[in-house]
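Below is how a single chain appears once it has passed through the pipeline. First comes the sequence as given, then the structure the pipeline wrote out for it. We keep one example in the README because the format questions we get most often are answered faster by looking than by reading.
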Amino acid sequence: MLRLWPKTWQVSLFPTCSWISHKKENLCLSEEHTCIDMYTAFTQILDERDELFREGDHLGISISDTSARTVLLPWQERLDSFAELEAYARICFEMQGMALDDTWSVYADFPSYRGDGLAYAIPHASLNRLLEIAQKKNLKISEVVPNSARGFYAGLNMKEKGSHLLLLHESTRFSSLLFHDQKVVAYDVEVPTGAKETALTRLFSRIACAHSDIANISYWPLDDALPASEISALTKSFYADAGVTLLPSRWWHQ
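Resulting structure:
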């Protein structure tokens, strides 16, 4: 049958792996590669999977947190316009030591009333370059979202009761998102400078100082995953009664 309507594909671009997926078709095609930038990875995966696309198809793109900036937004009343929301997000970035100039595009969102929100920023130059690559294939980009933001929205949709920690693992960083009754309450990042286990221990130490009642922990590795036994042992040393779940690397597409 002739396809009349454009499809929306999910394209994920990370330093050591990329993939294209489509939920309704239960399709996920991965490309493992050496450490390359996201533009090269994007070009390669579009060239190698060219037969999948039709003119006008849409792409939702996920990128590494290393290519963006992310911050939690404490709930704020009376933000009545997109301009006010962006200005508030920029203040929150600055308070975290990440002052942004006009070369950054900022997206901010409060998904639930009186719940904390999330903002992320991506350089205009990065977005424009991705758009140029897509346009050469007659494709349209619907969104570009960093990994922690994907985790944020996926975590809000998980039906966990009580406190739930989502641990994201890229090859160059660990990020944690803590939820309570489907609202985010904390976000933290640790960049390994030596053994990954040491970095993860530092991250868990900070989390445990502020939050002692975590009931469930989900580990989401994109690449270079730690063995399940090590993750379980380490988490149990901080939260003995917590349930631990290892999520597949393509988890949020499933």
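The domain at 158-253 is CATH 3.30.420.40 (Nucleotidyltransferase; domain 5).

See the next section for the split statistics.
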